[in-house]
Write a structure and sequence with these properties.
- This protein has 10 helices and 13 strands.
- It is an alpha/beta fold and 259 residues long.
- It binds zinc ion.
- Zinc ion binds next to helix 4.
- The site of zinc ion has 6 residues, from helix 4.
């Protein structure tokens, strides 16, 4: 008899927003005259014995400096569903943009999983210091990340890798050179936390990325890869869509259960 597969639940934790954005910013070259809203999130994957955090949110100092509307310290947001950031053991960083990596020091005991390609680009490649990339960089968060190199707290992932039974990291470049997403075994099948492979659900549906593009060709291949992997299209989640907060069961303030 095969043992029953490990199943996980996935939660979206909004830590800032909503923010008004031109549609053309989140949906490349589309609807220049229209606006939409986005939120900032991190995510929690809960299994029977394991809790993983996906992305770190933003550190309070940077949020203060940016006067970020609706900001809640990710530590306080996670506490609402019984997650203690200071004791979290595993954090997946999808990519090294400030809204996903700045809060890294809020997880002082966690092992950090990041693609080697992503780490090397943002921490070591001089091109990452050019203006289009600096716009989405938090030097303080990046310095905390860089400090972990060579320690057991940093796992540099090379391509697709299963890190726990039912949890697989997938290399998904396009938005950034080494973005990774998380494929999760759930009661509804394989779900994917796709982070900024899509800002909003429409990116996946219409196969148009956001305007923040490192490699458009890779990005289109990533869409094919993720759509082939996920059990159904509605289990493929974006990074910033306000629907993740409004269209799913609420489990605590600004926290919903996606799957
Ligand atoms: Zn983002």
């Amino acid at each position: 008899m095969p043992s029953s597969p490990l199943l996980y639940k996935i939660y979206a934790v909004k830590y800032a927003g909503p923010f008004r954005r031109p549609v053309a910013k989140v949906l490349w070259n589309t609807d220049w005259d229209k606006e939409t809203h986005i939120n900032y999130y991190l995510w929690v994957i809960k299994g029977k014995d394991e809790t993983l955090i996906v992305d770190c949110g933003m550190a309070p100092a940077l949020a203060n400096r940016m006067q970020l509307e609706g900001y809640v310290n990710p530590v306080d947001a996670l506490a609402r569903i019984g997650v203690d950031a200071s004791k979290t053991k595993k954090v997946v960083i999808t990519h090294v943009n400030f809204d996903h990596v700045s809060g890294i020091e809020l997880f002082p005991e966690a092992t950090i999983y990041i693609q080697e390609r992503e780490f090397n680009f943002w921490i070591k490649d001089p091109i990452a210091q050019k203006p289009p990339f600096l716009m989405s960089t938090d030097p303080v968060g990046n310095a905390h990340l860089a400090k972990l190199e060579g320690t057991e707290r940093l796992v540099l992932v090379k391509g697709d890798q299963v890190i726990l039974p039912g949890i697989e990291l997938l290399l998904a470049p396009g938005h950034t050179p080494g973005l990774q997403v998380v494929a999760v075994n759930t009661a509804q099948g394989t779900a994917i936390l796709g982070s900024d492979c899509a800002h909003i659900f429409r990116n996946y549906k219409e196969e148009i990325p956001s305007c923040f593009i490192a490699d458009m060709v890779s990005w289109m291949k990533t869409y094919d890869k993720l759509k082939a992997k996920v059990s159904s299209p509605e289990l493929l989640f974006p990074g910033h869509d306000t629907k993740m907060l409004t269209d799913y069961p609420k489990v605590a303030e600004d926290i919903t259960r996606l799957v």
